[in-house]
């Protein structure tokens, strides 16, 4: 019998006891009285028990092989915040005529009333489906009669002809689990690479031989029967600044390496990058489109007529493609039709647009390559062996002199060489029509940078008038430009901005370089604040932290097991010059502060002074890294805590008589 190659150590134990599946509806008083403090005192709901099993069988309908996955779970709901656990969404996938199906759904709610359990059975009419894109169907249902203390239970069966990714089992979810068990039957004719992701280890695992688990053309096939168990699994709490949760949740993943039928037929799926390079570069929807220089040969001279060097040529071509093709929000690494059609219709997927960009750059005799990546919400790709389904996005790479630039022409408001943040995710695979592919880091070429220059004067009635000038660069400028472009004009944007700021009135405005994306975006506002202090008194308090105050710590977990991923480095500078309506001494003020993160990871500086009846306030907040590892989390948490505490203090001004 063939072995299943495991990427995790299997800890075999003779003491392993499998719970197997449990009877539906057998609710116990122990279930009803389960003390959540044993696992998580803050839990709104807890999985008491879940069991799943996957087998590969011969379909009675198609006579082909199919994966049968059966799932069964029992959940205790403690309060209203846990009611959403009764809203069930099960995704299934389709690929052409091959489609997964959900059937045999069974669901009930159990409430303890007058000394016994009352079952509310879900009406089958409550089940409906929803198409989500071309390849995904969502099966949805809601369990009935949910109350504080309800126990819900449901089960279903999934039939799938898609065997490449044997059914993943997620041990971790958004609520804790007392017990989670997965049983997989894998026939000897299939070899799967199996990996455990996440930071939590298995409680138990066991493997044994299951004789004649299936038959193909009358030939009996043995199976590996493998149990995986986790007990007392903590909830996975999503927090700000992270990539796809699937990168970090504890789960078992299977990827088909190869199969060999009893009649000797073989198929290998785990290929070398050399094999994949050939497939991708000869594929008419990828490599074939990269070669379409002929489409652009007549227009390149006019596009680059004012360009004096290769970098200027590349920028001119990049801007041309951005103007000619509008992104239809479609993802993928291959052209849906062809780049010529996308040019003619002025619309296309990310692959259509960026393959067109690569072909245009090549037509100008520039060294252009394709880079296939996985976006932040899609997760990190497997680098041990090629799994093309991991990739969902394609960008361009142009090499000029000794420097390379990564390009995505789907966003008109992004400057040359700056990728959308959705693309900043670990590494991508660079595809060249003539050379072997290779990995490269996908990082932000610029940081998010904003500076505020405030020059205002306080009047005796406490009103403050003057100007606020904002300079935005990099991702900060991109985000601001996107916000402005949501409105029909800059004037409308400013009007809505004025409405959102009740304590401030914008009297006049000027916004520069909205469409000149290579330049700094500058906003100049003549403003009047409503009464900010009672300046008629001999003493009054005034808060200098009125520009982007930090009101809430974004990091509140006791422990975070996954990195803090900001996407890019960032910097915010605030400079305030406040002229007072007389001569004052500054009796109290917030502490001048200079704190930093370890290893030059960032800093926070604040300084307040008064001279010639003018208060000067300067603040700098910098994060010098895009990614902070889990062991740096406590420092980030404390860093923000100190900032928040410092910003709570007002300055006390006393009139000089």
TrEMBL record:
Protein name in UniProt: DUF3857 domain-containing protein
Keyword Signal found: yes
Signal sequence coordinates: 1-19
Keyword annotations: Signal
């Amino acid at each position: 019998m063939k072995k299943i190659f495991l990427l995790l150590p299997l800890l075999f134990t003779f003491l392993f006891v499998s719970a197997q599946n449990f009877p539906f509806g057998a609710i116990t008083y122990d279930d009803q009285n389960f003390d959540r403090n044993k696992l998580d005192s803050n839990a709104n709901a807890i999985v008491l028990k879940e069991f799943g099993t996957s087998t590969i069988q011969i379909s009675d309908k198609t006579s082909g092989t199919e994966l049968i996955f059966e799932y069964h779970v029992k959940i205790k709901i403690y309060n209203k915040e846990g009611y959403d656990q009764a809203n069930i969404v099960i995704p299934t996938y389709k690929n052409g005529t091959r489609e997964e199906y959900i059937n045999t759904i069974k669901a009930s709610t159990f409430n303890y009333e007058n000394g016994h359990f009352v079952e509310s059975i879900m009406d089958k009419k409550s089940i409906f489906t929803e198409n989500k894109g071309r390849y995904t169907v969502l099966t949805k249902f809601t369990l009935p009669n949910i109350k504080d203390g309800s126990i819900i239970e449901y089960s279903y069966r999934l039939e799938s002809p898609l065997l490449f990714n044997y059914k993943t089992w997620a041990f971790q979810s958004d609520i804790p689990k007392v017990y989670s068990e997965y049983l997989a039957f894998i026939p000897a004719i299939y070899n799967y690479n199996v990996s455990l992701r996440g930071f939590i280890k298995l409680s138990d695992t066991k493997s044994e031989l299951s004789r004649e688990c299936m038959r193909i053309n009358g030939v009996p096939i043995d199976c590996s029967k493998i149990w995986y168990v986790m007990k007392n699994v903590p909830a996975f709490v999503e927090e700000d600044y992270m990539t796809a949760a699937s990168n970090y949740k504890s789960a078992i993943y299977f990827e088909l390496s190869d199969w060999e039928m009893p009649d000797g037929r073989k198929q290998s799926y785990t290929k070398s990058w050399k094999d994949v390079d050939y497939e991708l570069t000869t594929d008419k929807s990828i490599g074939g489109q990269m070669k379409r220089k002929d489409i652009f040969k007549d227009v390149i001279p006019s596009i680059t007529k004012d360009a004096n060097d290769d970098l200027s040529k590349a920028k001119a071509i990049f801007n041309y493609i951005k103007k000619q093709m509008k992104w239809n929000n479609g993802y993928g690494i291959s052209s849906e039709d062809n780049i010529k059609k996308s040019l003619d219709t002025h619309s296309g997927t990310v692959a259509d647009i960026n393959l067109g960009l690569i072909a245009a750059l090549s037509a100008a005799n520039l060294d252009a390559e394709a880079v296939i990546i996985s976006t932040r919400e899609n997760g990190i790709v497997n680098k041990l062996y090629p799994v093309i389904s991991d990739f969902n996005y394609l960008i361009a790479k142009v090499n000029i002199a000794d420097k390379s630039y990564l390009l995505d022409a789907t966003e008109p408001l992004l400057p040359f060489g700056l990728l959308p943040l959705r693309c900043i995710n670990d590494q991508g695979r660079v595809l060249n029509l003539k050379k072997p592919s290779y990995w490269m880091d996908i990082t932000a070429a610029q940081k998010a940078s904003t500076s505020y220059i405030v020059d205002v004067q306080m009047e005796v009635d406490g009103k403050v008038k003057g100007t606020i000038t904002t300079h935005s660069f990099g991702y900060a400028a991109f985000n601001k430009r996107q916000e402005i472009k949501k409105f029909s004009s800059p004037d409308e944007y400013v009007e809505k901005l004025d409405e959102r700021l009740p304590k401030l009135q914008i009297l006049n405005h000027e916004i520069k370089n909205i469409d000149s994306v290579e330049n700094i975006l500058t906003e100049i506002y003549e403003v009047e604040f409503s009464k900010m202090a009672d300046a008629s008194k001999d003493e009054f308090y005034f808060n200098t932290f009125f520009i982007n105050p930090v009101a809430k710590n974004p990091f509140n977990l006791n422990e975070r097991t996954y990195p803090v991923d900001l996407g890019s480095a960032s910097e915010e500078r605030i400079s305030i010059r406040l002229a007072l309506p007389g001569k004052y001494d500054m009796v109290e003020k917030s502490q001048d502060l200079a704190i930093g993160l370890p290893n030059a990871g960032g800093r926070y500086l604040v300084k307040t002074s008064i001279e010639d009846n003018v208060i000067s306030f300067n603040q700098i907040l910098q994060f010098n890294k895009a990614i902070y590892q889990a062991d740096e989390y406590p420092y980030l948490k404390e860093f923000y805590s100190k900032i928040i505490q410092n910003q709570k203090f007002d300055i006390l001004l006393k009139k000089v008589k």
